[in-house]
Amino acid sequence: MSLVDIDTRVSTGHDATTFDTEGTAADVPGTGGEDPGRDLEDRAVRLKRLINTAPTYTAALSWWTGFTVRRTARVPDTRREVNPLEAKLLDVALGTRVTVRDGFLVPATGDAAVRLAAVTALVYEPALGLDIDGQALLRQGSVPLGELLGAAVQRATQFAVRVDGPPHADAPALYSQARLLVAGRPVAVVTETTYWWPLLRRAPTAVPQYIQAAPWTSRP
After folding, report:
1. Residue 140 burial (C-beta neighbours within 10 Å; 0-12, 13-18, 19+)
2. End-to-end CA distance of the chain, in Å?
3. pLDDT per position as a tens digit, 53-66
4. Separation of alpha carbons 179 and 145, rounded Å
5. Domains and CATH numbers, the chain
6. CA dihedral 154, 54, 71, 181 (to 10 degrees)
7. pLDDT tens readout for residues 163-209
8. pTM for this predicted structure
9. Dmax of the chain from CA atoms?
10. For helices 36-53 and 57-65, what crossing angle results, to 10°?
């Protein structure tokens, strides 16, 4: 699947979305108010803002859930040529071959069947600068790319939007896309689908230090 294919699945009408909370809101921790749908909307807005500002996507997801995450492959990695849009995003020549990593993020310990998110990454491996051990971890596949690159990586989020639809644990809640850069050079384009499971499970009250200066609540 190309980035163009992924982008056409994103709904930008998220501000007008209303939640179908029947059969879910009563079981959502911390939404005991008169309007559980609005409480869930607040959660979606908060996590969306966190994804926009976090140093890595896994940092945002780990902070929200309260536990570390790991990657599992949906399908084996493949190699293909970039299309015109992908070539521009990665700053490479049209026809350059990249690695496609398609997987899920799950709790680092516990039930691997709990899928928190799906992540597709187009990786230009020559620009990663990994040593032999890093390359082995990339092939092994359980370490998310942002964690594998460590402090060297910079995340530039291009968009994060709410997805229309009811809040079921295994349904998409947010779509986001970002470029990962090392020393200012694009090394990967990642597209993330955050499922409702993390949002239905909890809503952290603390604010990460790197966004404390910004107003947090989505309520008027």
Report:
1. exposed
2. 39
3. 999 999 999 999 99
4. 12
5. 3-10+36-207 (3.40.1410.10)
6. -10
7. 999 999 999 999 999 999 999 999 999 999 999 999 999 888 776 66
8. 0.79
9. 55
10. 140
